[in-house]
Design a protein that fits this description.
It contains 18 helices and 9 strands. With 525 residues, it is α+β, with helices and mostly antiparallel strands.
């Protein structure tokens, strides 16, 4: 079955060795990367020579291509990790730092993500924690400050098992520093602002518009998260409620939100191009530009980039009668994103996003076929929501347990309740911003959206208080996760052809998974 899938989706042949190289580069770094570059160059020469031969040797080409992609993954990962390398002296010194994001208030300090410059002019990203001071209110993004501090390498002390060091490396952060009150001074302001900073300013303008329309508290936080991707205003309580209910994914911009925008654009433009066919290419371009504009506006998170690429390819496919295989598009999207930033492979959002979509593509049709086809359209929509939710849950539940140690048992009920309300909020917010000149109607629509968000939050509060809504304190490891996905693969393989050997292999892996979990549980306690 796996070989057949690779034959149908050749992009898997490209993705797997690249992923292997990224993993090797992360876990087994070497100091002399020039040897890896030499191997990559050698395999590239082999690929060129093989293509020039009159009698092609497929095994030689395939082997050289795999080695080349493994080396590429290793090299790209090493280059990304090299950006965070720094020779820490452990001594206090004075540094010039440029504040890259607005100060974030913490219980005892202000957090300033900044680029710290050395005398050589080389800069590294550091998280500066400055003791609270009345003068701190004068610091803005883009300010150049002189700080006297000790630059420290990040550590995993007091992180509750969370790998803080790896997290900062994936974000391109070299280290941290604590700056005492009076040990810093504003020296000027940098007029150079990147496009990401300009977009952040624009997002702030949109949020201020929400505030002027009467949004505040949890309602403002939810609307900001859904439409701008800014989740700083979300309280710990509302995060916990959404997590227990099993719908925390709606707070992180992903395929759901991009899909709603894509569907909204199709709803508006498809009736027109059906009557005026020559406008179809123009409208397709408008749809793609709109999707990417939203993705850029919200900060280009990994899940948003993945969704935008896939929906863009789907829009292009509307120009042809034959549409590309969705799994093929998914693997090509992952391949392109990992070439751009290989460290995305270790990002939780990246993993959950791709696993969820892959599970929906593979499992949802089989789950839908198991249920009878309903006669009424509303029941069919509920059936589709249920099968998609179950498929996504099967794919993502092991990773959620691995990273968050929780399983939400009422996810089906929560998704049936949440999705229609989220759709109304998203569409309402888009219309609300479009009709800004019509202040009276805009205010009425804002009041309606505010009420919908209150209803949504209240329903989720009720669901979160139901008995056994979530099972907490679950523990697993990477081996058990790999065995689980192997078991799912073997079970699907058995469903395609129900033979005794396939049933036995599935049961053996399942029992091995149970045994590993039992042993790990005994060792833990």
């Amino acid at each position: 079955m796996l070989s057949a899938a690779i034959q149908r989706h050749p992009s898997i042949r490209l993705l797997l060795p690249l992923v292997a190289g990224i993993i090797l580069g992360w876990y087994i770094p070497i100091s002399h990367i020039e040897w890896i570059c030499a191997i990559a160059l050698l395999t590239w020469v082999v690929l060129v020579i093989e293509r020039l031969l009159s009698k092609r040797q497929n095994w030689l080409f395939g082997s050289a291509l795999n080695v080349f992609l493994i080396c590429c993954g290793y090299i790209l990962t090493s280059w990304q990790l090299a950006k965070t390398e720094y020779n820490f002296t452990g001594k206090a010194n004075s540094y010039i730092a440029v504040v890259k994001e607005p100060p974030q208030e913490k219980p005892r300090t202000y957090l300033l993500p900044s680029d710290v410059y050395e005398q050589s002019g080389e800069s590294h990203r550091f998280l500066l924690y400055i003791a609270k001071d009345a003068a701190l209110t004068a610091i803005n993004r883009g300010d150049t400050i002189l700080v006297n501090t000790v630059l420290q390498a990040p550590s995993n002390d007091n992180t509750g098992g969370f790998d803080y060091v790896s997290y900062l490396k994936r974000k391109g952060v070299t280290g941290t520093a604590y700056v005492r009150a009076g040990h810093w001074q504003v020296r000027g302001h940098s007029k150079d602002t990147s496009w990401t900073q300009q977009l952040q300013d624009f997002r702030t303008i949109v949020i201020n518009k929400y505030k002027s329309l009467g949004f505040e508290g949890d309602e403002l936080a939810i609307l900001s998260a859904l439409t701008t991707g800014m989740k700083e205003e979300l309280s710990d309580e509302i995060r916990e409620v959404y997590s227990i209910a099993g719908v925390s994914h709606v707070l992180a911009l992903s395929g759901l939100h991009i899909g709603l925008i894509y569907g909204f654009m199709l709803l508006l433009l498809m009736p027109i191009w059906k009557h005026v066919a020559h406008l179809k290419p123009i409208f397709i371009c408008i749809i793609i530009i709109t999707l990417w504009a939203f993705a850029i506006f919200t900060g280009l998170s990994t899940s948003v980039v993945r969704s935008t690429i896939m929906f863009s390819l789907h829009a292009i496919a509307l120009m042809r009668e034959e549409r590309p295989a969705t799994l093929h598009v998914l693997t090509l999207t992952a391949f392109g994103m990992l070439l751009y930033n290989p460290l995305w492979l270790f990002d939780v959002g990246f993993q959950l996003s791709f696993i969820a979509v892959a599970a929906i593509i593979i499992l949802q049709p089989r789950l839908s076929a198991m249920l009878p086809e309903p006669c009424y359209g509303v029941i069919k929509k509920i059936k589709d929501i249920m099968t998609v939710s179950i498929a996504a849950q099967i794919g993502t539940a092991p990773l959620v347990i691995l990273y968050f140690h929780r399983f939400s048992t009422h996810f089906l009920l929560s998704n049936i309740v949440v999705l229609p309300l989220i759709t109304a909020i998203m569409y309402g917010a888009v219309i609300m911003l479009i009709i800004t000149p019509l202040s009276g109607f805009q205010q009425w629509l804002a009041d309606c959206i505010n009420s919908i968000i209150r209803i949504l939050n209240e329903l989720l509060h009720i669901l979160s208080r139901l008995p056994m809504t979530s099972i907490d304190h679950l523990w697993t490891n990477a081996l058990e996760i790999a065995l689980f996905y192997c078991c799912v693969y073997l079970f699907i393989r058995y469903l395609n052809l129900r033979t005794a050997p396939r049933a036995i292999s599935t049961l053996c892996v399942a029992w091995f998974l149970v045994g590993c979990h039992l042993v790990n549980t005994i060792i833990r306690f």
